[in-house]
Amino acid sequence: MKKSVFLAITLAAVAFIGTGCQSGGAYAPVNTTKYNYEMQSNFVLLDPGAQRSVTSAGIQTRTLPDGRLEVAANIRNRENRRIEVQVNCVFKDAQGFEVDSTPFETLILAENSIETKPFVSANDKAKNFTVRVRESR
Fold first, then answer.
1. Can you give the residue range of the structural domain that contains 50?
2. pLDDT digits over 35-91, tens only?
3. What residue ranges in the chain does DSSP mark as E strands?
């Protein structure tokens, strides 16, 4: 008799504690805009080396007659030494979703120079873009 009463009380306590731990479902996302530069900017630097050495001296865009987006990025070497970086362009639709991407290409920048790197989207769905630069490994 005592075992069954003890077992019933124990089961009731476990059930009570188990239902008390529920938190009410899903959580809202936090820090959604922190480190979200690719959605906010047309030019991003992907690592500390690129941040130290490279900047954009301007970006020009135009729509070609067939509807594709053409981007020309002026990439500037801020240092007094020759550097090698990799550059690509991610083309996005009007809502910010990727529709096309170019492969990373190596770009050699002379001391304090500016190079223009052109990109063309593969289709007419591209309405926006992000030029990305990283250190060449």
1. 40-135
2. 666 677 789 999 998 899 999 989 999 999 999 999 999 999 999 999 999 999 999
3. 43-45, 54-63, 69-77, 83-92, 98-101, 105-109, 114-120, 128-135
